[in-house]
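Thread: Nucleotide pyrophosphohydrolase, structure

OP (GT): Posting the sequence first so everyone is looking at the same thing. Length is 107 residues per the record. Can we get the structure tokens written out before standup tomorrow? I want them in the notebook alongside the other entries.
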Amino acid sequence: MEKHTTFKQISLPKLNNLKLGLESTCLKLMEEAGELAQAIGKFRGINGEKVDFEEKEVIEMISKELLDVAQVAVSMMFVLEEEYGINIKEKVDDHIDKLEKKGYLKL
């Protein structure tokens, strides 16, 4: 049986005209993650509140918030690369190796 994993690539831009630091970017990441959690919980009625949104609207909100989280995470990687000399390609390769060793990927 052939082993394989599907890779999808999402490229997000480096944001211009922002003074990003490690701490401020981390705080922004947590803020965006909170907005994602709100979209998943509050707007789907998980916390007991009455929901006036259709499922399609909620999924749209979730996808938008998830992309905000991803953008800030990518921005944080740029900060690590530019301010601290981290090699993003090397870190991504190490991450994929870790996933494979844990059995999450079959390459």
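GT: Both are above now. Quick notes for whoever picks this up: The longest helix spans residues 55-84. DSSP finds three helices and no strands in the chain.
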